[in-house]
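Protein data sheet
==================
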Amino acid sequence: MFLLLTIGMTIASIGLDHFSGRVWSQSASLTFPLWMSGLATAGVGYWAVPFLRALKAGQIIREDGPQSHLKKAGTPTMGGAFFVPVAVAIALYLSGFDSNVIAVSALTMSYAAIGFLDDWQIIRRKSNKGISPKTKMGLQISFAVAFCLWLMVTNSSLTSIALPFGLMLPLGALFWVLACFVLVAESNATNLTDGMDGLAGGTVAIALLGLGALVFSNHPELGIFCSALSGGCLGFLVHNRNPAKVFMGDTGSLALGGALAAVGLLTNSLFALLILSGLFFLETLSVIAQVTYYKATKDANGVGKRLFKMSPFHNHLELTGWTETQVVGWFYAIAALLAGFSLVIH
């Protein structure tokens, strides 16, 4: 699965570079940052994974989750702490420390810091409870507001959403409310998708490469950033593919969602981001639907019915008989189709 993903993304990046007139072996391309970051993060992982294991940074598995996941207890988590900084550093270097890349990198690392704090509390307390949901949400909103304030100062005319075929959807001041929502929602959506070996890493890698291809013509520096972070995900998958030797934790999943949203906002690609994030959106909707249905069907004893066997949706599929590799494989295929569709209508 991992090998097919790597080959497919390499062919796609070389093809996209070729048809856009870019030299794939140069830094100002999709392919070079993808491979440079992938090799670097994979290499660092051979040191970082044993280090995390030595720290006893083992994952705490939910007892009410799929029983097949119980054997994963003790697998090191917080993998985002090694692959996200490496990928961001490479993106900064290859982009010449462009101001836009510095901004999205700051947002990405800020969300990684929130995830790190949450992961560390989970490990320290040896439970599934990290920092409180209010604290987590408050920090996410605070960093989202800070990023939007910077964006407002540097792009004050950004008050409309670009749609396909050259159409625009004017929102006025509401754009900034939506912008903050997108940053928080996207980071939480990728966080919910991180529940199987290789699932979040692979699907986000595809989404990032697709977004990088979309924005490269007008924002090459952000195309490089997306490609480098996509490569970081591939490098991480060397250690996270089934059976996983390390999990990314909230440190990785919150950061990746924040990165997608930040680039989408800065390049006014929110509609394309919605398509690219279709799987993450589905996962989030499944959780919302599950909670809503359970509350709406509560009986006299306060017990409700479940719409799915378990949410997010990937857990429902596994509990209905799908294997992890089947779920991950289909999610990769759907993510690739969504990326292709976003490029066609762009």
User: Anything to note?
Assistant: The chain has a mean pLDDT of 91. The radius of gyration is 19 Å. Residues 99-125 form the longest helix (27 residues). Residues 2-345 form one domain.
